[in-house]
């Protein structure tokens, strides 16, 4: 009898598997300059910024967008691809010993970093200046939609 | 008795989760944690061995975090730009970025750590490269295969698909990835310095080498290329370009590719095969572009 109840619980848990994913509360910013917007759209007004590794509480999801509160106070919408599951421990010393797994340390930006890049550049060279210049070219979603519109390119269903 | 009924149930749940985990290994391990225990033994323990295979597969590409992917991409870009010179034509590069960044916005991965950036390189080869994280390079030779903006969009969408699929990261040898992630995951790296730094730098350099070899010499598997074409069609359609732009562009490329050449002829399946593979999604057709679009393409790339 008890086992039947447990089996039911397990089946229910299975059904709720996807719902669980949504219920996961804490996520981390996975892009360098995360934008928090007023509405769930790339055209939404930017109400705040969130930087790589900062943790956010996910309050709601709508399509590709998550409504979040960034640690520190700002609330708004972030695109789901700017977020990653789990908590990122950013600074080596702040977390209590044992509270951060190896996996989380890997997520915390250790390893392949600016420091490794500099060391690699010394030994292997490469045209990093050209890469730096390339990274400067960036357009806002509003400017890109205007560009498409001027060329009579009509996105299906508007900006994601 | 209790255990005998419970285990099949648990197995069923784990099987379903393993399927889910193929797409989301990180979510999987958390989901397992949230199940608590059965008969005193944590479900996660059974799961650990049951889904080890899933995790091992994911280890190759997904376990590099976005910041590491970004640095790998920068170094791949720096290596490519030591081999190919940037084409210094601001108007042409601006235009390619406008088209490319617009497409990226409609991909499944519109945001990456450092964003998407496009650059024309000064080479007559028919070639294009996508470095991890969103640095995309296209040769003048490839642009000459493009009859209009729609065709250009098709090429760029294919490259964005490689970024989205993390295909370049998959080129890093498995053993290397495992070793790198083991060092990165280790507590000691908190204070990276000396031996550890040089060990990491060596692994980093070897990883860049793996990617360059695949990207420039060997090419990705046919499967990955066909998949990138299919993803490109989705990106084109969402953005508002004609899907036919891709097969049309491939047909033009076929005319221009020199068999045995050191460019796309070497690293990609034959354009004809790619067209055949795409037949269910998009067929070769003339893409008529509005005057204003044709004019801006000509103004930016007419003399490429």
Description:
The complex is a heterodimer of chains A (160) and B (304). Chain A is α+β, with helices and mostly antiparallel strands. Chain A has two domains: 23-110, SH3 type barrels (Roll); 113-160, no CATH class. Helices cover 35% and strands 23% of the residues of chain A. Chain A has six helices and seven strands, in the order ααβββββββαααα. Chain A has a five-stranded antiparallel β-sheet with strand order 6-5-4-1-7, with no helix packed on it. A two-stranded antiparallel ribbon of chain A has the order 2-3. In chain A, a hairpin with a 2-residue loop joins β4 (55-62) and β5 (65-70). Chain A is extended. Mean pLDDT of chain A is 77; it is low at 89-109. Chain B folds into two domains: 2-59, no CATH class; 66-168 and 218-301, no CATH class. With 304 residues, chain B is mainly α. Chain B contains 16 helices and five strands. Chain B is globular, with a radius of gyration of 22 Å. In chain B, α1 packs antiparallel against α2 (25-33), α6 packs across α8 and α8 (149-164) packs across α13 (245-256). At the A-B interface, α1, α2, α3, α4 and α5 of A face α1, α2, α5, α6 and β3 of B. Chain A: Residues 1-21 form the signal peptide. Chain A: Residues 24-87 form the SH3b domain. Chain A: Keywords: Signal. Chain A: This is SH3 domain-containing protein. Chain A: It comes from Solidesulfovibrio aerotolerans. Chain B: Belongs to the peptidase M48 family.
């Amino acid at each position: 009898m008890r086992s039947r109840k447990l089996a039911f619980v397990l089946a229910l848990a299975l059904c709720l598997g996807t719902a669980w994913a949504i219920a996961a509360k804490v996520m981390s910013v996975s892009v360098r300059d995360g934008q928090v917007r007023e509405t769930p759209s790339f055209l939404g007004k930017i109400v705040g910024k969130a930087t790589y590794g900062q943790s956010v509480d996910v309050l709601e999801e709508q399509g590709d967008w998550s409504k979040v509160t960034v640690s520190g106070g700002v609330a708004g919408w972030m695109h789901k691809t700017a977020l990653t599951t789990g908590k990122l421990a950013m600074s080596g010393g702040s977390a209590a010993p044992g509270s951060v797994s190896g996996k989380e340390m890997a997520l915390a930006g250790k390893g392949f970093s600016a420091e490794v890049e500099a060391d690699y550049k010394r030994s292997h060279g490469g045209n990093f200046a050209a890469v730096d210049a390339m990274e400067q070219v960036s357009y806002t979603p509003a400017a890109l939609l205007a560009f498409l519109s001027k060329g009579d390119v009509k996105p299906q269903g508007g900006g994601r | 008795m209790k255990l005998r009924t419970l285990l099949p149930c648990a197995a069923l749940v784990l099987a379903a989760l393993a399927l889910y985990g193929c797409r989301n290994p990180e979510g999987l391990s958390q989901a397992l944690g949230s199940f608590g225990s059965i008969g005193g033994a944590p479900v996660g323990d059974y799961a650990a061995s049951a889904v080890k295979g899933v995790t091992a597969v994911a280890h190759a590409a997904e376990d590099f975090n976005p910041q590491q992917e970004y640095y790998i991409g920068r170094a791949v870009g720096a290596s490519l730009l030591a081999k190919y010179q940037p084409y210094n034509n601001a108007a042409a590069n601006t235009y390619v970025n406008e088209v490319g960044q617009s497409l990226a916005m409609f991909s499944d991965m519109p945001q990456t750590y450092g964003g998407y950036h496009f650059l024309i390189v000064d080479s007559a080869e028919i070639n294009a490269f996508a470095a991890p994280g969103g640095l995309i390079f296209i040769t003048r030779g490839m642009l000459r295969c493009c009859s209009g903006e729609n065709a250009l969009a098709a090429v760029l969408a294919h490259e964005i698909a490689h970024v989205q699929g993390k295909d370049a990261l998959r080129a890093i040898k498995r053993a290397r990835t495992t070793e790198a992630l083991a060092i990165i995951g280790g507590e000691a790296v908190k204070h990276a310095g000396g031996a550890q730094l040089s060990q990491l730098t060596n692994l980093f350099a070897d990883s860049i080498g793996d990617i360059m070899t695949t990207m420039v010499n060997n090419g990705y598997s046919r499967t990955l290329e066909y998949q990138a074409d299919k993803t490109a069609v989705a990106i084109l359609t969402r953005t508002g370009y004609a899907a036919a732009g891709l097969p049309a562009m491939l047909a033009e490329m076929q005319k221009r590719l020199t068999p045995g050449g050191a460019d796309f002829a070497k690293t990609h399946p034959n354009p004809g095969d790619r067209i055949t593979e795409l037949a269910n999604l998009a067929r070769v057709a003339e893409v008529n572009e509005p005057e204003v679009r044709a004019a801006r393409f000509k103004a930016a790339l007419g003399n490429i």
